[in-house]
Write a structure and sequence with these properties.
heterodimer, A: mainly alpha, two-stranded antiparallel sheet, 22 helices, globular, B: mainly alpha, 2 domains, 6 helices
């Protein structure tokens, strides 16, 4: 029970020290605002707000970041409901019933459904995290280098499988990220690689400038390219709470959405955008009146909103137990933890229970505060949608510069951020998702170190096939990579695919 | 603007091949990687070599696929939705950001950020179709000043994060 003791100790500290709660509340407010703004994703919010935590201690930093993380996922639903544009990818489905409900004059009720479902899903994901993470970590602690290398490869292949578009291109993006991780001094031999004679390159490419570039600046560039979008904001928010008799039958939808969200979130690299689509489709399939979906029914809001917030806790499971990001937001979060001297992985559950407890407590507090602040500030947050685009994009661009500079006080990092801003802007244009690059950069050192250590200790590549866990992981990885290609008929059927005008995606 | 599939694949393929060639060139040109003895350790060259092979093969595969599609279409180029005009603002953002970063150390954060903010607030207002009047220009100056000061106060004074 040492973990429980740590959790209680953190709660006790919250009672005596107001700052962690204040940082969490600030994170929640900023997270809801950023999440609500169309064109600013949750990942981007986390990436550009990260530098605010550099001078904080671990507790305050995580309190703030978890506040942003959880609240921005909910915040996306405000835009989805009021202007029919998802604020974040996790709210792409909420708009389908949320906006029609708002147009019927029930915008307040739609937002309340979203908040309460988010809270329910958040708690569900948190419980799963509390119970599953220590169990998985206990198993992962038995892993040796071959298993660890195989699990890391598994994480990368799952990312490719779960990414939108082509599995092949997502995997190539992951390999590119792994290659970026080899830039600079090799940790084992101290030999510098791919430094092009530049001393600044010897330190390698940090995850923060890269993440700020591909998730932050790239999004600014896409917004600039998209041009001015005119949308009608539903400004009238009257009754907030729907009658209890309408809310009571929604429990099953919330449970189902949460369950799907937490499971999808726990799959390495599968994000909330996948979770909400699966949850909505499942809810519609199970409904006695599937034809009513899309007309403004509460089930269409509750299920995806419970799902996307359950993803938060789910996504933290692979991050905390294996060091593998659960989604692009946890990839950025890993970058933040590295800045604070913490490398997520099973060893945390042995050596740094205090940190594990901080994650548990900060997420729970974030869920509670998101619900409270979200309900209290519904009308205020709705006004955020009218924020001038000129201020928003300019401010985010400056935050990108400030954020990437603050990591090492280095102008080189800012230039890295700008370069990866362009890379992150161009990659989706050729059908390549950007998240695998960040994942590759995080997983690269883990994969290389464990692969080399396996070879040093065992002297043969066969070791990866001789150990059951490693063999199973590699087989699943292979299946995840090959199955989508077989489904499309590639590689031998790509000519037929070309004739059907399904090029390369 | 999308270029995926039709022209995107061969372009991606060529980029990956160039990356592979440059990577191998740097790796084999690195005497520490090629000549030092690392004992049982396969050395710092093994992992990047595997990745470069994978990238190179992926690049070739994309090019071959694109050629096959081109032949299947009877040699006709696929449709492209490139619109150079839409690249104007993203291109301008990259240029001004690079300039912003380069002049920051000389003139200091507040002054340069104010200038950068003003330029972009102005540009985006013009894009939104705002008519430029003196009062509007003054408002933009004020907005730029408030935005820069806010970021400065939050980062430099409140959370004490070093600014460029």
């Amino acid at each position: 029970m040492p973990l429980l003791q740590e959790v209680l100790r953190i709660f006790a500290r919250l009672l005596s020290d107001p700052w962690p709660l204040a940082f969490n509340a600030t994170g929640v407010v900023v997270g809801i605002i950023f999440g609500a703004l169309p064109g600013i994703s949750s990942t981007m919010s986390l990436a550009v707000l990260l530098p605010l935590t550099f001078a904080m201690d671990t507790l305050n930093a995580l309190m703030f970041l978890m506040g942003v993380f959880n609240a921005s996922v909910y915040g996306g639903s405000i835009a989805a409901i009021l202007i029919n544009i998802p604020g974040t990818p996790g709210s792409i489905v909420t708009q389908m019933d949320g906006h029609p409900m708002a147009k019927q004059g029930r915008a307040g009720e739609a937002i309340t459904y979203a908040i309460l479902a988010s809270a329910f899903g958040g708690i569900f994901g948190w419980i799963l995290l509390m119970f599953c993470a220590p169990l998985i970590a206990r198993v992962a602690l038995q892993f040796q280098s071959p298993e660890y290398a195989a699990v890391t490869f598994f994480g990368l292949s799952m990312l490719a499988y779960a990414s939108p578009g082509s599995t092949f291109k997502a995997f190539v993006g992951g390999i590119f990220g792994l290659l970026l991780a080899t830039v600079g001094l090799d940790a084992t031999t101290n030999v510098s690689r791919f430094d092009f004679g530049l001393p600044a390159m010897m330190g390698g490419i940090s995850i923060i400038p890269l993440a700020v570039g591909i998730f932050g600046l790239a999004e600014v560039l896409r917004n600039l390219e998209a041009g001015v979008r005119r949308f009608e904001v539903i400004k009238t928010i009257t009754r907030l709470f729907p009658p209890w008799r309408e809310m009571r039958p929604l429990w099953p939808a919330a449970v189902r959405g949460s369950f799907i969200g937490a499971l999808v979130g726990a799959i390495p690299a599968a994000g909330s955008a996948i979770g909400v689509v699966v949850a909505y489709a499942q809810e519609k399939r199970m409904s006695k009146h599937p034809e009513r979906f899309g007309t403004g029914i509460p089930e269409g809001i509750v299920s995806p909103e419970a799902s996307n917030n359950a993803c938060v806790g789910g996504a933290l499971i692979p991050m905390m137990t294996l060091g593998i990001p659960g989604d692009s937001m946890t990839a950025v979060l890993i970058g933040a933890l590295l800045i604070h001297g913490l490398r997520p992985g099973p060893a945390l559950f042995k050596d740094r229970l205090d940190f594990v407890a901080i994650v548990y407590v900060s997420l729970l507090v974030a869920i509670i505060l998101t619900t409270a602040i979200g309900l209290l500030g519904v009308r205020g947050f709705a006004k955020v949608l009218q924020a001038p685009r000129r201020m928003l994009l300019t401010g985010v661009a400056i935050l990108c510069v400030v954020g990437s500079y603050a990591v090492n006080n280095s102008t080189f990092d800012v230039l890295v951020m700008i370069v990866f801003g362009v890379v992150g802007y161009l990659m989706p244009k050729v059908g390549m998702p950007v998240a695998p690059v960040a994942f590759g950069l995080i997983l690269g050192p883990l994969l290389e170190e464990n692969m080399r250590r396996s070879l040093v200790v065992n002297g043969t590549w066969w070791v990866f096939l001789q150990r059951p866990v490693s063999l199973a992981m590699l087989l699943v990885s292979l299946a995840a990579l090959v199955y989508p290609m077989l489904r499309r008929g590639a590689p031998w059927g790509f000519l037929a695919a070309a004739k059907q005008d399904e090029p390369g995606t | 603007m999308e270029v995926r599939g039709t022209r995107g694949d061969p372009v991606t393929g060529v980029v990956l091949l160039v990356l592979t060639v440059v990577g191998f060139w740097r790796l084999y040109g690195n005497q520490d990687v090629t000549t030092l003895d690392f004992g049982n350790d396969p050395g710092p060259g093994l992992f990047p070599k595997l990745l470069l092979w994978a990238l190179g093969l992926a690049g070739l595969w994309l090019i071959v696929q694109a050629l096959a599609r081109w032949r299947a279409r009877g040699g006709e180029a696929g449709a492209s939705t490139w619109e150079a005009r839409r690249l104007l603002l993203p291109g301008l953002m990259m240029t001004t950001l690079a300039g912003y970063v380069l002049i920051l150390p000389r003139f200091g954060f507040l002054a340069v950020t104010c200038l950068f903010s003003f330029v972009w607030i102005l540009l985006l207002s013009i894009e939104e179709g705002a008519r430029l009047t003196w009062s509007r220009l003054l408002r933009f100056v004020a907005e730029a000043g408030v935005l820069s000061a806010l970021i400065y106060l939050v980062f430099a004074k409140l959370v004490r994060v070093p600014l460029p």
